[in-house]
Design brief:
By secondary structure, this protein is mostly helical. About 40% of the residues lie in helices and about 10% in strands. Strand 1 and strand 2 form a beta hairpin. The longest helix has 14 residues.
Length: about 140
């Protein structure tokens, strides 16, 4: 019962906190990395490994690291359009080859059309800007 588990329940994260009262910087970095990759809340990770969560927060501050933010999922609706007519509306000549596009609907009335070869960083910035902008 008093034995610590070195593997978190089903996550495959193997890490054992250092023995003794003090952690070195490398101990802290390894612990923070294991906590993040476990997918658990920091408090649960700390509890399962037998130390107080404040130790992780102290080390994040000391190392100037930010806690991982949970992934945010936005609702997505997939709408199939006839590619040639969609491209004609966009100003592409009728004889031009149709390139695949994806329409990303942000909120209720904003659409971003994404074509082949888009920049993922730029798309992310555009979606964030549209999500935070007032209607």
């Amino acid at each position: 019962m008093g034995e610590k588990k070195s593997e978190s329940q089903g996550t495959g994260v193997k890490w054992e906190p250092p023995r003794g009262r003090r952690w070195s910087e490398s101990d802290a970095r390894a612990g923070l990395s294991a906590a993040r990759s476990s997918g658990m809340r920091l408090s649960r990770f700390a509890r399962e490994h037998g130390f107080h969560v404040s130790r992780l927060y102290w080390w994040m501050k000391a190392l100037k690291e930010q806690p991982a933010k949970p992934a945010a999922f936005l609702p997505v609706q997939v709408v199939r359009k006839d590619a040639p007519s969609a491209h004609r509306e966009g100003g592409v000549p009728r004889g031009a080859p149709a390139l695949p596009t994806v329409d990303v609907v942000v909120g209720s009335n904003r659409v971003v059309r994404v074509g082949r070869g888009f920049d993922p960083g730029l798309l992310r910035a555009v979606v964030v800007a549209l999500e935070t902008a007032p209607c």
